[in-house]
Fold:
Amino acid sequence: MTMNQEIITGLVKKVIDELIMEKGSKSEGLTGLVDTVDEEVENAVEAQKRLIEMSLERRCEIISSIRKAVLDNNEMLSALSIKETDYGRYEDKIRENILCATKTPGVEDIQPIALSGDHGLMLLEFAPVGVIGSLTPITNPTGTLIHNSISMIAAGNSVVFNPHPSATETSTRLVQIIHQAIVEAGGPPGLVSSVREPNLKTAKEIVEHPKINMLVATGGRPVVNVVLSSGKKAIGAGAGNPPVVVDETANIRKAAQCIVDGATINNNIFCTCEKEVIVVDEVADSLVKFMQETGKAYLLTPEEAKKVTNLVVTPERKINIAYIGKNVQVILREVGVELGEEYRLAIFEAPKDHPLVWLEQMMPVMPVVRVKDVQEAIEFGVEVEQGNRHTALMHSTNVENMTAFARAIQTTIFVKNGPGYAGIGLGGEGHTSFTIAGPTGEGLTSARAFTRQRRCTLVESFRII
Ligand code: NAD
Structure:
């Protein structure tokens, strides 16, 4: 039994096992899974041709059917994901899947643009790119796959997935469910697919396959570099290390609550989660006190912080993957600290050069760095984000400070006075995305990001005013 499962209560475990057995048996015999990349791509080429011959109304029905199937199977998928990867929290996986199923834009995202003038009419349409190869991460095996399926199909494409090998069972089960939903709505088989046993070899075959028109990598820097050097149109959605800056004008109690909520969703594995706090000295003590008062954050002693650091950071200064996405109780138990179930996060005061300030820890252990003033906080925030152009946060009531940080850090997402997940539409305005393209600039991707623009010009006619 893995560590995370140890702390799931007997009752929850029983429910999870029953759900997996019940829903799992129902998905037997569905398709969407094949043995080879070549087979997958041939099916995907055919399916995409058939999709674009269908009406947009049918495409909308396909999208609705995918949304419904995901919601119907949410409990099973969330449970399976936790069971297989041992990353995150069951109740947060449920939220992740609902978010992706309901707030990923559909066909409405590719509305054409028309422009009329002295010379006639110009119509700009967002056309499909064809077959897309999508490499998905272990951290969000369901969220990314749901979001990518809806977005890419809404744009008129077919998609060939190469899920992370350590999330194969969850991802292939989800591909089957989505595939079934498409076929039930009258869509072509093969529109989404995965090989039964995805691995680095199949990923490479997808990257190099001549009939795949576009690549999308959602993961760390190396895989983003792989797709960007493929010679194909590519979107890279890479790693982040979101700093959260708190200045002396902030509502400190609210900031403390937001930071604890944001940093603990799914045990910190979202790429948008707060990863380090940078706080102005004047309010640092209050912030830490209010974080403790949420009842969810445990303040480590310097001695405990040292032990935890040695546990979760390897001698090569890398994150020890054994602790990614684990509950805080599991991590702290290893250093002799027993915490009650109500705790979600461990915090500690750290110097600027602490490894957890610089590494993307993806676990509920968070450094708090004190700085002299907001200027220093902004400068240090920019440094620790390390040019990922991903996400940054600020708690402040000073508009000039917020503007200064947003301008300096240049991230794709900038959240003010809220938790990090508000930036992906959970309790914040706007659509969601689980492929946030900082390196290539598409931002929070949606259907339009998976299209190519085509212009149609009608000269000297159709201006009716
Ligand atoms: P990862 O980079 O290890 O794997 C991602 C995918 O790429 C997997 O399918 C993997 O099999 C494949 N892959 C990895 N190396 C490859 C290579 N050399 N050639 C071909 N394929 C390769 O990432 P992970 O550990 O699964 O996910 C966590 C990372 O993803 C974190 O850094 C997180 O911030 C990032 N992430 C980013 C976003 C975003 O939207 N920007 C979303 C989720 C996760």
In short: The pocket of nicotinamide-adenine-dinucleotide is lined by residues 135-140, 162-165, 200, 203-204, 217-220, 222-223, 226, 237-240, 271, 360, 434-436 (CB under 6 Å). The first strand starts at residue 33 and ends at 34. Confidence is low (pLDDT under 50) at residues 24-29.
